[in-house]
Each structure stands twice: as C-alpha cells, then as structure tokens.
Amino acid sequence: MPLDVQNFALTRPAGLPATRSPCSDAEFTEIDAALTEAFGAEFPAPADGASLLRRTQERGGAVRFVRAADGACAGAASCSAPAEGTAELAGVGTRPAYRRRGVAAAVTSALAGVLFERGAESVWLEPTGDGSRRVYERVGFRPAGIRLYMRPPAPLP
User: Fold this and answer.
1) DSSP secondary-structure letter at 96?
2) Interval 122-135: pLDDT, tens
3) Residue 156: what pLDDT?
C-alpha cells in the first residue's frame, strides 16, 4: 500500500544526520554505487544510474544523500518532479554498514521538504516491508490508498 504525506503532516525527527544535494558527476556516481550496494541483488542496478539521478534533479526532482563520518556515502534517495501536485519519492537505500542510524529517515524527510517547497501538495512512496514502513511513518507518511498494477493481455500495437 502506498504511503502519502501532505505538507501539513511532515515531521522532521530530531537527531537525523544532515543531507546533501549532489553537485558533481563524482557524487552522482558515488550515490549510484551506494544504492546498488544498499539494494544488493533485490533490484537490478541500471547501467546508467548516475545519469538517471542527475536527470531527475535537472528536471525538477531532487536527490539527497548522507555523507558518513568516514566520508563515504551512507545512503540516498530521489524524488520525482511534481506532476499534478504530486511527487513520488523512490529508491531510498542505506548501505548495510550504515543502517539503523537515521539515514533513510533523513533523506526521506529532506526530499519531502524540498518537494513541498517546489509546489508539491503531496509526496508518496511505496514501502517494501514493515521496516521501511516504520521509517516512513516516523517522518509523517501515512497509508493513502492502493496502487494497482495492470498489464494488457497482449502486446499493444
């Protein structure tokens, strides 16, 4: 079930790590590598992940990441540009060595805030399990509906 947050419901828990917006090709590449590690074999990594992240940001969406104390990218996420007042937050991932430190909550909260500042009326995401659901609900996301996946019975002409 997708979760949605509206600007009046967003909370930013205290003590979250600071987030950054990538500014260079090296940072986009580092974020892509961190997300690939975060998701392991669960989701295949796109061949041009760094380029996709850059295009998301250039087209009015946003990308945020957390730099760990050791200098590594601990985790990141991205959010689409608002369309019809709504934006999708996706790809929230934390590298295994940095989990349970507030990284996912930090990037989720920061991205929702950025998109509200850019005119989104709501931001939605779809958790992959109870653990991610708890993180998202902690920063203000709430169940908002059911996402329907459909596939035509035959290839379209």
Assistant:
1) G
2) 898 888 878 888 88
3) 65
Give pTM, 2 decimals. 0.85
Task: Please name the amino acid found at residue 1.
Answer: M
H/E element, 124: strand 122-125
**77 Cβ partners below 8 Å, 6+ apart?**
63, 64, 89, 90, 91, 92, 93, 104, 107, 108, 111
User: Using CA atoms, how far apart are residues 15 and 105, in angstroms rounded to an integer?
Assistant: 10
Give, in order, the Cα–Cα distances in Å from 118 to each of 27, 82, 90, 115, 127: 23, 8, 17, 5, 24
The residue among 33, 14, 25 whose CA lies nearest residue 75 is: 33
